[in-house]
Design goal:
This protein is α/β, with parallel strands linked by helices. The chain has helices spanning 15-21, 68-78, 94-102, 115-122, 145-150, 152-171, 173-180, 188-196, 207-222, 239-245, 248-254, 258-277; strands spanning 26-32, 40-45, 60-63, 88-91, 108-112, 125-130, 139-144.
Length: 280
């Protein structure tokens, strides 16, 4: 991870936790709020005997491990008293998982837009649960710590551009769909609906965001989905560094209170004290 993310897209709540567990020296740059949740769902064939999430016990469920699909499947199963260990998890990329689902070599699949929309319109599937109402801190733009620390001006300029493009896309869904549809090989109407299920916004990294992300990390470790505990704060910048890279419009519109800012500063002071004590 040499610069901002890998391809200019934000990551969900799960990938950076896996990356931290693997020793990647990343930092959380800004937060991206979750969409409506309609663009991600656990699906089964229309004629499947599986009727509810509870029926998935012991069944083959395909999803892409290490992506936001992981956390979604965990939380969905949790609602019916199951854990990820109660199903036969099949770790496949989205494309391979889709192929396995269509060939019926798996019982259920965590599908995403825009293909989810196509399958819904075809009437060939049933949705057991989509991500609506599942609490998630959202996604993040990430960067290597070295890049974020030494390229504040450039990083802020990049984020400002992302913010402006996102605001335009939020207000011009159809026009954005016309641009994106050919790139993802779908039709404009499908792409437009997919875009209405997303929010192209940016929010600052706050104490609340850090706390919610830590809850995700703790849950994934508790279930042994990640091999070791992950400290989200180890991938956080200082409040001064965030102030230098976060777009002014984002700070202005975020409603970040002075109390939240003070909480982050107090944590920084505490961390500095602990580190100084560790030297003796």
């Amino acid at each position: 991870m040499n610069n901002l993310c890998h391809d200019g897209r934000p990551a969900g709540e799960t990938p950076p936790i896996f990356a931290q567990a693997a020793g990647t020296n990343l930092v959380y740059v800004v937060n991206t709020p979750p969409g409506t949740g309609e663009g991600l769902a656990i699906i089964v064939p229309k004629d499947s005997p599986i009727k509810t999430l509870a029926d998935l016990k012991g069944k083959k469920v395909a999803y892409s491990r290490g992506t936001n699909q992981t956390f979604f499947v965990v939380k969905a199963l949790e609602e019916v008293g199951l854990t990820i260990n109660d199903v036969n998890s099949v770790n496949l990329t989205v494309a391979d998982g889709r192929a396995a689902f269509l060939s019926r070599t798996v019982d259920a699949f965590a599908e995403i837009d825009p293909n989810l929309i196509k399958l819904q319109r075809e009437g060939s599937i049933r949705i057991l649960r989509n991500a609506q109402g599942i609490n998630t801190p959202g996604g993040y733009y990430l960067a290597s710590r070295d890049f974020a620390t030494h390229n504040a001006v450039l990083l802020k300029a990049i984020l400002e551009e992302y913010y402006e493009v996102g605001q335009w896309a939020n207000k011009n869904r159809r026009a954005a769909a016309e641009i994106l549809a050919p790139k993802v090989k779908t039709d404009v109407d499908t792409m437009e609906l997919a875009l209405t299920r997303r929010k192209y916004d940016i929010k600052p990294i706050t104490e609340k965001v850090i706390s919610e992300q830590q809850k995700v990390a703790d849950l994934l470790y508790q279930l042994k989905i990640v091999p070791k505990p992950v400290d989200i704060r180890a991938a956080v910048l200082t409040s001064q560094q965030y102030a230098a890279i976060t777009p002014d419009a984002v700070l202005k519109n975020s409603g970040v209170t002075s109390q939240e800012s003070e909480l982050l500063k107090n944590w920084e002071i505490t961390r500095a004290v602990v580190r100084s004590e560790d030297r003796y």
